Amino acid sequence: MAGEGDLKLLELLVSPFVVRVRMALHMKGVSYEYIEQDVIDKGELLLRYNLVHKKVPVLVHNGVPLCESHIIVQYIDEVWPGSEGSSILPLDPYERATVAPRPPTSTIRCVHFFTLFSSSSELRSDLRVPESWFLSLPLQLFPAWLGILKATTQQGRVEKVKETLAVVEQLEVALAQCSNGKPFFAGDSVGFLDLVVGCNLLWFEALHRLFCVMFLVAGKTPLLATWAERFGGTEAAREVVPDADRAVEFAKKLMASLGSAPVAN
To answer: What is the 3-state secondary structure (H, E, C) of 195-251?
Structure first.
């Protein structure tokens, strides 16, 4: 992989937002130094480079920090354009401006644990999907499945599962509109919206192992189920996404620290 100057990534391996950034770096063939962070007991490096929000990921390029995963991905796409066909955001200036991330300020006040391993709530829409509708889907997905882990009662957990499934069903419709029958949200190859949604798949599998709940079922969301299998089979996903057991291990620690309802037998 080709590096450009001194490049470090402060991260938590199982963070979906870190997965998003690491996949973007891999897609561009960029080498970097991986520095794992304790997101609960904030370390010196994290406090130095992201003093305000104290969140990962943080990309440090030649000593200059860049925060917020959606901004980092856009930066990576522009600084390391790569070969033809490797653009993460659309090449057309108008479409690129439309898809470019501009998270609403209200999303900064997301769920409490968001401050532990997210770099912000996310994102814009694809041009072919009504912005006011699609914009809300990635914003809803993370807090919904995180709520499954945070639930203090079994009934509360059931409600969060239903909430997550409802978002997934809407993503099925979004995929149909965005892809126009092509393999990915972005068309023929993985693009920005694929990374936005795909970084959550690790946790779908972890939640399945913990609670025996399936979020992607071919009978209910056939397009999304096929897309997820295709996304997981990409070289970037195979190389970057950690095994779901790592997420399960982290989830158990989180639930214990929050006093969440135990896993039902």
So the answer is: HHHHCCHHHHHHHHHHHCCCCCCCCCCHHHHHHHHHHHCCHHHHHHCCCHHHHHHHH
pLDDT tens per residue across span 38-49: 887 778 889 899
Q: What dihedral do alpha carbons 143, 145, 146, 152 form, nearest 10°?
A: 110
Determine the Cα–Cα distance for residues 129 and 184; give it in Å rounded to an integer. 14
pLDDT 10s digits, 186-236: 899 999 989 999 999 999 999 999 999 999 999 999 999 999 999 999 999
pTM of this structure? 0.85
Q: Say if CB 221 and CB 115 are below 8 A apart.
A: no
Neighbours of 182 (CB within 10 A): 11
Element (H, E) at 124: none
Q: Are 237 and 16 in contact (CB under 8 A)?
A: no
